[in-house]
């Protein structure tokens, strides 16, 4: 019988997986993390196990005794999605079925096409425009099928991620450059088009709070987060500029905002897989796409929400984009 306080996190070295693992640990859970090539042992309150999410037996053994499996693993750099994504999920479902565990999946907006815009409810039609979107739809279909066979499922869907330890996202790969002081913001969206952002610690906190009440969840539970809504594309850029200005030494030049060079992605796409995938998602920057969080608020009473400038400051600091405060010299 699965214990109520043991969780396996797949993808614990990634942005959302790592944040969920840390917050579950801090909430008193016994956290295991499966990582290919990991040095096994307990570090920072998490038990690390060596294994590959593509190895059904490794996932099965790592999940033994677990009440929850967080499936936050993705192929690196968007590569080989069609080969790897669904087999990894099938391994998670098989382990969850054997243990009677709940599967937690971070959802995406890739599942949806224009017929569901501009405000996405949990039951909105899923007619994706992209290959990756079609795979995400199939992932949720397989989870829903599994829920009819006794596997409990929790999907939390949010907007574009940003946060202190998040690397594979638009904030850190498009808007600013990790490891460098902020001198410019390269914004991918059209002027006047709204966009939704989600701060990773808020998403993880939402998952942790939902899991604390998982006995009240439906077998196939989906929740949408409203996150931070940027109504015209200027709010996020403005927050970055304000935070950078506060940390600039000697005043510094004002951070400029420019249009993202989509033309460069087009030229490089035949040679760089990540650029091809980023370009495929351009449609999400050309039209407003938000999410209705009424179901989440009704269930939890609120949505965990960090003020935007505070969240942006933590994200930029974690990415090494803010100048260190000048040292104080004693008289």
Describe the secondary structure blueprint for this structure.
Elements: E1 6-10, H1 15-26, E2 30-35, E3 41-43, E4 46-50, H2 56-62, E5 68-71, H3 81-99, E6 102-107, E7 119-120, H4 131-147, E8 152-157, E9 160-162, H5 170-175, E10 184-187, E11 195-199, H6 200-211, E12 220-224, E13 228-230, H7 235-247, E14 256-259, H8 262-268, H9 273-280, E15 290-291, H10 294-300, H11 308-318
Parallel strand pairs: 1-2, 1-5, 2-4, 5-6, 6-8, 7-15, 8-12, 9-11, 10-14
Antiparallel strand pairs: 3-4, 11-13
Helix pairs in contact: 1-6, 2-3, 3-4, 7-11, 8-9
Could you give a short account of the major beta sheet? 8 strands, mixed
Derived structural class: alpha/beta
Assembly form of the protein: single chain
State the helix count: 11
Helix content: 25-40%
Evaluate the radius of gyration: 20 Å
> Which ranges are low-confidence, i.e. pLDDT below 50, for 5 or more consecutive residues?
325-331
Shape: globular
Strand % is 15-25%
Q: Give the termini distance in whole angstroms.
A: 65 Å
- Strand sequence of the main sheet, in spatial order? 3-4-2-1-5-6-8-12
Number of strands: 15
Element order: H for helix, E for strand: EHEEEHEHEEHEEHEEHEEHEHHEHH
Give average pLDDT, whole number. 90
Structure report:
With 331 residues, the protein is α/β, with parallel strands linked by helices. Helices cover 36% and strands 19% of the residues. It is built from eleven helices and 15 strands. It has helices at residues 15-26, 56-62, 81-99, 131-147, 170-175, 200-211, 235-247, 262-268, 273-280, 294-300, 308-318, and strands at 6-10, 30-35, 41-43, 46-50, 68-71, 102-107, 119-120, 152-157, 160-162, 184-187, 195-199, 220-224, 228-230, 256-259, 290-291. An eight-stranded mixed β-sheet has the order 3-4-2-1-5-6-8-12, with helices on both faces. Strands 9-11-13 form a three-stranded mixed β-sheet. The radius of gyration is 20 Å and the shape is globular.
